[in-house]
Amino acid sequence: MARSSGRASKQVFETVTTVPDELLPNQAIVKVVVAKGNSLYEVTLPKVSADKLIPKSTEEKNREEILQKLLTDEDALRFMVEMPNKFRNTVLVKRGGYCVVELFDDLSSTVKGEIVNIVVIEKEWTRMPYWPLEYKRDTRGWDIESDEEANKYAMPPSEDEESEEEEAIHY
Questions:
Q1: Would you give the DSSP letter of residue 93?
Q2: How far is 14 from 16, CA to CA, in rounded Å?
Q3: How far is 10 from 71, CA to CA, in rounded Å?
Q4: H or E stretch covering 28
């Protein structure tokens, strides 16, 4: 009995969005910068994972030198990845979203990897030990500067609010 396309799409979606227990050595979590069309995406690699862009055959002395160049040049951590055929037209990756990329052995080409997993529910992923600290968001507490920035565009208080404030000050 043949499966319906809806069921197949759902199964593909579940496999691509499942949180793995651990990442393979040639996998990294990246942030999507922009969709370039034709199932190609420009992504950035966190600085923590920069060593994954250095070919394994490179000598140790040269690895350190290349790593320093990668860490100082922001554009060096940006590269293209592709969406595999089985995910196309089933899963969308939004700009600013995160995904897991499996890097190719040959890093000299323009496309350096393939998307193997997509972060849909960020909260589940941030709990994992392999989630890069660079991508963690600190939402505990208020940021005074951003609060003042928000108040800059707020409506001025009404006459009733001003009189209530004056009464509260006099007591």
A1: -
A2: 6
A3: 39
A4: strand 27-37
Looking at residue 81, its pLDDT comes to 92
For the four alpha carbons of 57, 59, 64 and 66, in that order, the dihedral sign comes to negative
Rounded CA separation 129/44 (Å)? 20
Sign of CA dihedral 23, 48, 98, 57: negative
Domains, the chain, in order of start with CATH, read: 7-137 (2.40.50.140)
8 A C-beta contact, residue 79 and residue 153: no
Q: Which of 32, 59, 58 is nearest to 113 (CA)?
A: 32
Q: Which residue has the tokens 């992923």?
A: 125
Tokens 């793995």 identify what position? 20
Q: What are the mean pLDDT values of the chain's consecutive 10-residue runs (171 residues total)?
A: 62 73 88 89 86 72 74 80 83 87 83 89 86 71 50 63 55 48
H or E stretch including 101? strand 98-103
Contacts of 39 (CB under 8 A, 6+ apart): 82, 83, 88
